[in-house]
Amino acid sequence: MSTASRVVDRVEQIPFLDKRDASLLFVLPGLFVFSAFMLFPVLYLVGISFTNAEPANLFAGEGALAVLTFGDAMFVGLENYVAVLTDPTFWNSFGITWLFVGTSVTLKLVVSISIALIVTSERVRGKRVMRSLIILPMGLPAIFTITVWRGIFSSAEFGLANQVLRSLGMGTVSWLSERWMAFVAYNITEAWLAYPFMVIITVSALQDVPKELHEAAMVDGAGYFSRFFHVTLPSIKRPVLFASILTAAASFQQFLIPFVFNEGGPARQNELVVVYGYREAFSFAEYGEGAAISIVAVAFIAAFMWLNVKRGKLADGVSES
Amino acid sequence: MSLLSGIVRKLREDAENILLTPVETAREAKYTVEGVRRGEIPPSKPLKTLGATAGALVLVAGLMFPIYWILMAALSGSGGSIYSSGGLTLLPENPSLQPFIWVVGDLIVPAYAVSINIPLTDIAIAVNTPEIAFLDASDYGVERTSDFKHFFWNSLTVSIPTVIIAMCLIVPASYALSRREFIFRRKILFTYVLLTQVGGGLGIALLIGLYAVYVQVGLNNSKLALSVYYAATAVPFNTWLLKTYMDGIPVSYEEAAVVDGAPPWRVVTEVIIPLSAAGLATVFIFVFLTGWTEFVVAQTLLGTENYTLPVGLFSLVSEYSIPWARFSAFALTFAAPIMLVYLFAQRYIEGGLSFSGMEG
């Protein structure tokens, strides 16, 4: 606040920049383009969700004006929403999405905190090198990582997961054509995809834990685990909560993993909600229902994020600056 | 160019560190051994250190194993088997670069016939440029090569306009948000932070609407329209990032320039832009990678002839029987440069990537 206004005070003496709100003009182009590609599709999606849009009628109209009339699609009121909300596949997809959020966030938290504890441990040598190696997956494009993991869980010859199972003397698993095995595969991949971010945040939080606290606890005779639960965990709680909020949101919207692995299969059982909406529209040509599902998903993303912003105080930085 | 010299200096420091690490470790080990011999250090201590380090190394190796596996699969001509008749094998048996040649394909500049008519005379100069072959795939026994170059070109023609458009939108906005006070400033910032968190999933949820609009306007299968979309999605996060970076530049520099009588545009071009070079580089890389690595929207909007690299990669894996070596080589050729850029970025441009801005 103060830094910005000081410059403004100086700069205001220059006649050209007399009106301070003129600076809004710098921001508007970006805001406008962004809204054009985010806000307009939202409105359009809301519109489509009240029609019986299919490729046949949606793209039938002539000229650019047909955009505004949704082609030849007919208004059907709340029919799509009723159809979606009474469809057991939707509730299945909805349930599996929240289950995925729960399991994958737990897995990510456990994995990342353990990794972070190990690479900050006093006894380990070469921690810096290990740390920079360990966050490598963050630099890989998501589509690369996920296709590689698709290969790992492949039931075709040379799939890595089955090779490991076989070398341990266990039978092979057809990962992607069994529901819960596919779900496990999703979780493992999601954890591998997201742990670097969590580890970075946890490591920097761990380094901020005052040494004196640990020493005091040691003098009092606390063991490793009681020190972890009573000293370390309370001190890193806030940044880790911040990281888990973000990663939970990422899990909720996970699209690529189910889509690349087996398109949310087998038999549409594992379609996370975003995949479900996408497939309903593009694989089954039900644009109206797909739009309704997407609206429900967007509403949940928004509510979820709003809740998390309130709880996690993400916006503190904005109000202070 | 202070950024470049900074990078060079850091690179040198890194090299020195790497070279000195074994020396330091040896010195430390010697000291410990002598301490143990003299009875000053209890022998359990170095053993614990050794055990913990070994455990951590195993963990790191386990986490990195998928990357190693894909590299091995690419190098072994047929497929990446860690399990052969002789038990576990961690090195490819017959390493071959053939899959990579399949990916890259022919690198041949074809022969052109150039003829120039000199005006007002009858003289014409005809030149046949020689064919330059850097790499001829058929020499290595690869007959049909991949479409990698085609995908690469598509990706490039999507990403470069994305970067140009996005930078034009982001840089002025982040300067204004960082240094000026105006109406709605806080509301815009708050929206941007929120959307930064929501990000990618929202884009996919809105894809039905976007697709329908694009098809009706006739913009689907247009690479430029796709780049505009990517630039738009890149705006909130990168504006926020660059704004946070610019907040870190001391205001006194600008005050000094203003006192010296510099007009506002010179304050920007000679103080703000040079000082935020690292932040700009970070944003540049992020925006470029947005277009380079995005998959879902590209796959939905683009036709087969315009597929970008990620879509090309996916089309390999979705086949029923995966050609392991070729798939791995393709994936690595796609991802390795990004990985290197990222490694540099996180090490040398880390100033631009502070999460501190998120928390105030």
From TrEMBL, chain A:
UniProt subcellular location: Cell membrane
InterPro entries: ABC_transporter_permease, MalF_N, MetI-like, MetI-like_sf
UniProt xrefs under Pfam families: BPD_transp_1
GO CC, alphabetical: plasma membrane
Keywords for this protein: Cell membrane, Membrane, Transmembrane, Transmembrane helix, Transport
Presence of the UniProt keyword Nucleotide-binding in the record: no
ABC transmembrane type-1 domain segment(s): 113-304
Transmembrane region(s): 24-46, 58-78, 98-120, 132-152, 180-206, 240-261, 291-309
Superkingdom in the source lineage: Archaea
One GO BP annotation of this record: transmembrane transport
Membrane topology, record value: Multi-pass membrane protein
Annotated protein name in UniProt: Carbohydrate ABC transporter membrane protein 1, cut1 family
Native source organism of the sequence: Halorubrum kocurii JCM 14978
From TrEMBL, chain B:
Residue intervals of the ABC transmembrane type-1 domain: 152-345
Topology term for the membrane: Multi-pass membrane protein
Pfam families: BPD_transp_1
Sequence intervals crossing the membrane: 47-71, 151-177, 189-212, 271-292, 324-345
Primary location recorded for the protein, binned into one broad class: membrane
InterPro entries tied to this protein: BP-dep_ABC_trans_perm (IPR050901), MetI-like (IPR000515), MetI-like_sf (IPR035906)
GO CC, alphabetical: plasma membrane
Assigned keywords, A-Z: Cell membrane, Membrane, Sugar transport, Transmembrane, Transmembrane helix, Transport
A single GO BP: transmembrane transport
Location(s), subcellular: Cell membrane
Family the UniProt entry places it in: Belongs to the binding-protein-dependent transport system permease family. MalFG subfamily.
Protein's UniProt name: Carbohydrate ABC transporter membrane protein 2, cut1 family
Species this protein is from: Halorubrum kocurii JCM 14978
